[in-house]
Design brief:
By secondary structure, the chain is mostly helical.
Length: about 230
Amino acid sequence: MMRQRGDFVCHHEPWNELYYYGEDRRSDRDAQVEAKPGHSYASVWSGLAAQADKTDVFVKDFVYSVEHDLDDDKLTAMTHTFLIRDPQRVVQGLAKHWPDCTFEEVGFESLHRLFHRIAERDGTAPPVMFSGDLIDDPEGTARAYCAAAGIPFIAEALSWESGDRSEVSWYGEGTGPWHDQLRQSTGIVEPKTDYAPLEDSPRLLEFYERSLPFFNDLLAHTFDPIPKSNDQE
């Protein structure tokens, strides 16, 4: 949706890529993969900052992969918005591709921590969008998101052509299924993926139960969709 708008240069998980594959990576999940020369947190920050001096930039990423590198100056340079999903499907989806996933990779604890860090700094809570609202009412939820973020709502951005999505596939060979539904999609619809019950894995069930308090607190801060008014017909 953000790429389809046409008024932002969009980056898909630049810090998450660093977390696993950068010169100063934080994870040894794919330690055998050699880092690209110069691919570091410092170089990515520098590149994003230089780009943002010339145009509007949108970054989608996971907090756990960059939280260690977020000083106050970097936080201030960005407008922060949050997206939360049902933690059950988050855990199930992550475990489907990474059966050895960690609780940190589930992501809710770091997301919750950054949310409150920003809220305490600014004296007001940053916008939080619930994926369930976006699925149930794409236009109303996108309209509310744009209002909260201070950007114009563009209805045409809610649909696109299906096809290649190489711009979001940094995960490497053999991990294409992360984005199968995105490649097939033409808009925002309910996901159809089926997962094994969490009860089949005590470890994953624990991840879900530990995530719930963080999710529920963030859920209490979500904005409501904005219905189309008569003058918008």
